[in-house]
Amino acid sequence: MKDIYAVIKRPLFTEKGSSLKETENKILVEVARDANKLDIKRAIETIFKVKVEKVSTITARGKWKRYGKFVGKRSDRKKAIITLKPGEKLDFIEGA
C-alpha cells in the first residue's frame, strides 16, 4: 500500500470494541481489504503517533440479503484489532 490514509477506513464503535478498549488497551478499526499487518501498523503509528505492539486482522464475508424479490450481497470487509503498547492511549472521540 502506498498511501497510509487509504489503509484505515474508519473506527468501529461497537460493544465489543468498547470492551476491548477499556480492558485490554485495544482499538478496533475497519481497514482496506488489500492491506497487510505491516501496512496497518505503519499507518496507525504515523497518523496517531502511538506505538503498536500487535495487529490482528479479521476478514468478514458479505452476507446475502433479500429485499422482496431482489437478492443482493453486502460487500466484504476487513477489520483490524490493534494492541497498543502499555502506557499508550488513543481516543477517537474525546469526551463524547
Report on the structure:
This protein has about 100 residues and is α+β, with helices and mostly antiparallel strands. The chain has one domain: Alpha-Beta Plaits. About 25% of the residues lie in helices and about 35% in strands. It contains two helices and six strands; from the N terminus they run E-H-E-H-E-E-E-E. The protein has helices spanning about 15-25, 35-50, and strands spanning about 10, 25-30, 50-60, 65, 70-75, 75-85. Strands 1-2-6-3 form a four-stranded antiparallel beta sheet. Strand 4 (about 65) and strand 5 (about 70-75) form a beta hairpin. The longest helix has 12 residues, at about 35-50. The chain is globular.
Tell me briefly what this model is.
The chain is 23% helix and 36% strand. The protein is an alpha+beta fold. It has one domain: Alpha-Beta Plaits, CATH 3.30.70.
CATH fold-level assignment: Alpha-Beta Plaits
Low-confidence regions: none
Strand content: 35-45%
CA(first)-CA(last) distance: 32 Å
- Gyration radius (Cα, Å) is 15 Å
Structural class: alpha+beta
What is the global morphology? globular
Total beta strand runs? 6
Strand order of the largest sheet: 1-2-6-3
The main pleated sheet reads as: 4 strands, antiparallel
CATH class: Alpha Beta
- Overall domain count: 1
Number of helices: 2
| The CATH homology group name | RRM (RNA recognition motif) domain
Average of per-residue pLDDT values: 91
The helix/strand order is EHEHEEEE
Question: What is the CATH architecture term?
Answer: 2-Layer Sandwich
**In percent, how helical is the residue content?**
10-25%
